[in-house]
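Milestone 3.1: sequence recovery, worked example.
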C-alpha cells in the first residue's frame, strides 16, 4: 500500500509496526463481553485511533446501543450471559443495516473458525487478544462493511435509474 491517504478507503496507519486501515472519521466498534478486562484491553488498543469503542456486558445491552447508534463492527465474546454468538448473528441478520460480527474466543480451533465463517460472521479473534491482530481484523472488517454499503448504494442507484428509463 502506498503511504498516501485515500479518502474513499481510510487513512493508512502503522500500529505497532504493521500497516492497517482506520477510518478518517470516528467509527464505532461495539465490544460485547461480560468481562471488564476485555473492555479495558480493547479500549487501550483503540485509544489512539479513530475508532470509538462502545461496550456492553450482554446482548440486551448491545441491542440498546445498536438502536441508538450506527455501529458497523461488533466484537462479541462467543458465549455471553444472555446469548451465544450464533444468537447474536441471527439478531444482526434482522437489522436493516447489519453490522459486521467478529467472534472472540479462547477456544478457537480450525473447526470453530470454519463454523463462524460459514454461518456468516466475519472472523474470529483469539483470546487473550493480540493488539496487532485485533487492529488488523477490525480494520479489514470495517473495509468489508464499507465496501458492502457502497455496493448496495450503487446497486440501488442503478436499479432506480433502470426503473426510470424503463418507465416504471
Amino acid at each position: 500500500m502506498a503511504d498516501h491517504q485515500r479518502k474513499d478507503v481510510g487513512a493508512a496507519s502503522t500500529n505497532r509496526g504493521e500497516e492497517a486501515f482506520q477510518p478518517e472519521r470516528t467509527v464505532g466498534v461495539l465490544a460485547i463481553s461480560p468481562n471488564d478486562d476485555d473492555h479495558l484491553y480493547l479500549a487501550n488498543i483503540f485509544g489512539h485511533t479513530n475508532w470509538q469503542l462502545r461496550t456492553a456486558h450482554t446482548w440486551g445491552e448491545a441491542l440498546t446501543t445498536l438502536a441508538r447508534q450506527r455501529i458497523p463492527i461488533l466484537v462479541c465474546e462467543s458465549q455471553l450471559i444472555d446469548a451465544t454468538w450464533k444468537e447474536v448473528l441471527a439478531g444482526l441478520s434482522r437489522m436493516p443495516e447489519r453490522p459486521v460480527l467478529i467472534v472472540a474466543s479462547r477456544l478457537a480451533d480450525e473447526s470453530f473458525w470454519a463454523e463462524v465463517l460459514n454461518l456468516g460472521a466475519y472472523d474470529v479473534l483469539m483470546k487473550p487478544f493480540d493488539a496487532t491482530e485485533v487492529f488488523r481484523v477490525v480494520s479489514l472488517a470495517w473495509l468489508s462493511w464499507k465496501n458492502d454499503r457502497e455496493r448496495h448504494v450503487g446497486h440501488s442507484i442503478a436499479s432506480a435509474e433502470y426503473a426510470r428509463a424503463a418507465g416504471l
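The chain has one domain: 11-130. Strands lie at 11-15, 18-22, 27-32, 51-56, 73-77, 100-105, 123-126.
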